[in-house]
TrEMBL record:
Lineage, uppermost ranks: Bacteria, Pseudomonadati, Pseudomonadota, Alphaproteobacteria, Rhodobacterales
Family the entry assigns: Belongs to the binding-protein-dependent transport system permease family.
Membrane topology category: Multi-pass membrane protein
InterPro entries: BP-dependent_transpt_permease, MetI-like, MetI-like_sf, OppC_N
Descriptive protein name: ABC transporter permease
The species this protein was found in: Meridianimarinicoccus marinus
Record domain ABC transmembrane type-1: where: 105-305
């Protein structure tokens, strides 16, 4: 019996993790030191907020654990009365500033992420409808967007927050304040998503694959969700990253003005407002450290958004 030549074994297909590591986006990220540093900074802040109950040395919002004698303790200095020492000092109520920052960071990040998700969902939905259906639907949606763009986003958020809080029963206002804040910021930021998705949808709906989907009997909603939406997500991700930083700053602004997060759930903006009242009396640390964390978070997210915009721009490749 003659020996038959053995065929060469089929090459192994690389794993999904390996393909992701070798992708153009991953290569671009590895060769952008500023993006790597920004991602590490943002991840560190996010993980610190998520695990705040485990990391924080004190529970700043438990009245039983507070000692008013620890009030206005400078950073890394023992208190003159109790001898207790705190890394970043304490505020007027004796709360550890480091612990309040961790818990305040949780509120700011939660409001920012939730508001962007709400704005992105609303903007994508309205943008798809306006771009695909056209006609009077497009006119109503886009004229509404144009009118909203004539007002600063923070003023729109303040107006929506005031109206929503006004119609909320008094006994539920503190419990619903965070959700009202998310609704106000998200409703003031949907326009950018809608305009970008509308423009991309108008381009995609004239392509052959959409025409083919119509010929085989696909419905309009199925075409929009399964065919057009995946092809318009790249610019949406860039806008979402940049909008996250804007949403966090908007929440801090509203809380600084006293119309955002309630005192029982203070965010970074609330902590900055509290510290601002003691700046000129010498207790600088109450204002400085929350402000630095807010600045670092917004800067890190913005730098990631700038890198993502350049990495997904085909004109720069």
């Amino acid at each position: 019996m003659s020996d038959l030549p053995q065929s060469a074994p089929a090459p192994r297909r690389p794993s999904a993790l390996r393909r992701g590591w070798d992708s153009d986006l991953a290569w671009s990220f590895r060769h952008a030191p500023l993006a790597v540093i920004s991602l590490c900074l943002v991840l560190m802040l996010v993980l610190s907020a998520v695990f705040a109950p485990l990391i924080a040395p004190h529970d700043p919002f438990n009245p039983a654990s507070l000692n008013l004698m620890n009030g206005f303790t400078p950073p890394m200095e023992p208190n003159a009365f109790t001898g207790d020492e705190f890394w970043l000092g304490t505020d007027d109520q004796g709360r550890d500033v480091f612990s309040t920052i961790l818990f305040g960071l949780r509120i700011s990040l939660f409001v920012g992420f939730a508001a962007v998700m709400f704005a992105m969902t609303l903007g994508i939905t309205l943008g798809l409808l306006a771009g695909y259906l056209g006609g009077w639907v497009d006119t109503i949606i886009m004229r509404t967007a144009d009118v909203q763009l004539t007002f600063p986003a923070i003023l729109v958020a303040m107006l929506i927050f005031g109206i929503a809080k006004g119609i909320t029963p008094v006994e539920y206002r503190d419990q619903m304040a965070i959700w009202v804040l998310i609704f106000a910021i998200g409703l003031s930021d949907w326009v950018q998503f809608a305009r970008v998705v509308r423009g991309a949808t108008m381009v995609e709906k004239s392509k052959e694959y959409v025409q083919a989907a119509r010929l085989i009997g696909r419905s309009g909603p199925a075409i929009m969700m399964r065919h057009i939406l995946p092809n318009v997500l790249s610019p949406v991700l860039v806008i979402a990253t940049i909008s996250l930083a804007l949403a966090i700053i908007a929440e801090a602004t509203l809380s600084f003005l006293g119309i955002g997060a309630p005192p029982t759930q203070p965010s970074l903006g609330t902590l900055i407002r509290i510290g601002q009242g003691y700046l000129f009396s010498g207790e600088w640390w109450i204002l400085l450290f929350p402000s630095v964390i807010l600045l670092a978070l917004a800067l890190g997210v913005n730098l990631l958004g700038d890198w993502l915009r350049d990495a997904l721009n085909p004109r720069l490749k």
